[in-house]
Design brief:
Blueprint: H1 2-34, H2 56-69, H3 82-95, H4 108-121, H5 134-147
Helix pairs in contact: 2-5, 4-5
């Protein structure tokens, strides 16, 4: 019976030591984790490419048009990036009431001016609200289809 008591005592002591070691390991891990850098950056800027729902082929048609008329000198790669949008903003400023800087950022003022053209010529029926919703994107696809002839 005495051996049985010692066995239980040693097993209990081993369990206590194991739990303590596990707690220390977890504490060390959580301490290390608190010093870690976050996995998500908070300083992310504006998207470099914004095709507003166009495929790369459709966006390339738009690039062909702005190359012919609005000073776009970039690649005809179907990626409406900063330089593509700067050319589009020059057009929007000249004809559709865009009154912001030519910065290539697709913000609400860029979208509002684009919506004015889309409403006049490409079947857009929504509000001039600066939000690129499904109606704006559908009308922009019509715009791209009309631009195909410039490629």
């Amino acid at each position: 019976m005495r051996a049985n008591i010692w066995t239980r005592t040693l097993v209990s002591a081993g369990a206590v030591v194991g739990l303590a070691a596990g707690s220390l390991a977890t504490a060390g891990t959580s301490l290390a984790a608190s010093d870690a850098k976050p996995a998500v950056r908070s300083d992310v800027g504006v998207l470099a490419v914004n095709n507003l729902g166009l495929s790369t082929t459709q966006a390339r048609y738009v690039q062909c048009w702005i190359q012919d008329y609005w000073g776009y000198t970039g690649a005809l790669d179907g990626q409406l990036g900063t330089n593509s949008w700067k050319a589009l903003q020059r057009w929007l400023k000249a004809h559709w009431g865009y009154n912001d800087s030519i910065d290539g950022i697709v913000g609400p003022n860029t979208i509002k001016a684009l919506q004015r053209d889309l409403k006049a010529y490409h079947g857009y029926t929504g509000a001039i609200d600066g939000i690129a919703g499904s109606g704006t994107k559908a009308a922009f696809k019509d715009f791209a289809a009309d631009s195909k002839q410039y490629c």
